[in-house]
Amino acid sequence: MKTNFFLLSMLAIFLCSSNVTSQEKKQVDENRNKGYFNITKFGYKFVSRASLETFNPILGNSKFDLPTNEASVFSLQTINGYFINSYVSLGVGFGLDGYHNPNANTIPLFADIRLYAKDSKKSGYLFANAGTLVQIENGSRRGGMINIGLGYKYPINNKRFILITDLGFSYKNISLDDQPFRDSNDQLRIYGMMLSIGVLF
What we know:
Layout: H1 2-31, E1 35-56, E2 60-66, E3 72-85, E4 88-100, E5 104-106, E6 108-116, E7 123-133, E8 143-156, E9 161-175, E10 186-200
């Protein structure tokens, strides 16, 4: 009898401990601001300015603006990172950007930092990205990129997922002759605003 009582007591303690741990993990998952995270998002960029710089041995440097009234940019990115604390996260991102008019497909590889306003499921934040453009054969261009902006996160689908929305400034410098950007004789610079929506896991 004593043995059975002991076993039942141990089982009750184990179940209570498991329940507390589960509740703690649930709280962490709801806020999505501790440990490892992933952000996957889709975006659209509004091109405000595009300029082309070329070099000719005889004519020298030339620079002129390109029309942007028909320009369009669609973007898909995924970011993996870690929360240093409930307000600061660092990560590494990878994406695919399709530029049309002017045409220049790019594959950005970048560092990501985010500063959150509150330790909560709902919070505004600031973010910054800086990195390089990876060339894979002839399907993408070399160069560099910078994104700076703000956003907001909030829970959806019974708090199982956190939706994020970003709005910010976007800049890219792109080599058009397959040379590193600093050595390129044909350089494309694109400025604009980006709007994106995604999920924080």
